């Protein structure tokens, strides 16, 4: 090949590379959008306290709507995974993220206190633990920490152990606890 043919070949290869890169970028953005959609639906399923299998029902509804409204977007909607396992995994990841955010906020508390409530429904006691904390900018955080099932007769010691375990898991500093 002479110099001119080599330059043409390089340009041809560069065009091919750019088109492939664009295709992968498009595919990646479509994949990210599908994952984001899975998280959006999972969040709504969890907020409404519905079973995780509702994701499959919602997906069937979305596909029916897609066929009626925008049939040309068939692949985009089909990429959204809303199986029971996917919804459960998304909810678990959202829960973990919220817990991590609360742990970070808890480190900034200048003071906090706990509220625990017990409910007894049909001989099954559950202890709800909430935290209210304030940081140095006097911003107040109120969050649910845990729901602990209590089996059999519960003593003050049992309740203390559940609260203690929850405080330690959330890495809340004991010296900042106020009563």
Put the structure in a nutshell:
With about 180 residues, the chain is α+β, with helices and mostly antiparallel strands. Helices cover about 60% and strands about 20% of the residues.
Overall description:
The protein is 58% helix and 20% strand. It has helices at 3-47, 54-69, 74-78, 84-107, 156-169; strands at 109-121, 124-135, 140-150. Strands 1-2-3 form a three-stranded antiparallel beta sheet. The protein is of the alpha+beta class and 179 residues long. α1 (3-47) crosses α4 (84-107). The protein folds into two domains: 3-95; 108-176, no CATH class. The mean pLDDT is 84. β1 (109-121) and β2 (124-135) form a beta hairpin. The longest helix is centred in the first third of the chain and has 45 residues, at 3-47.
Order of helices and strands: HHHHEEEH
* Broad structural category: alpha+beta
Counted up, domains total: 2
What is the number of helices? 5
Overall mean pLDDT score?
84
Radius of gyration (CA) equals: 26 Å
Give the total of beta strands: 3
Share in β-strands: 15-25%
Parts with pLDDT < 50 across at least 5 consecutive residues: none
Largest sheet: 3 strands, antiparallel
Roughly how much helix do the residues carry, as a percent range? 55-70%
Distance between the termini: 85 Å
**Which of globular, elongated, flat, extended, rod-shaped describes the shape?**
elongated
Order of strands across the main sheet:
1-2-3
From the structure above, extract its key features.
alpha+beta; 2 domains; 5 helices
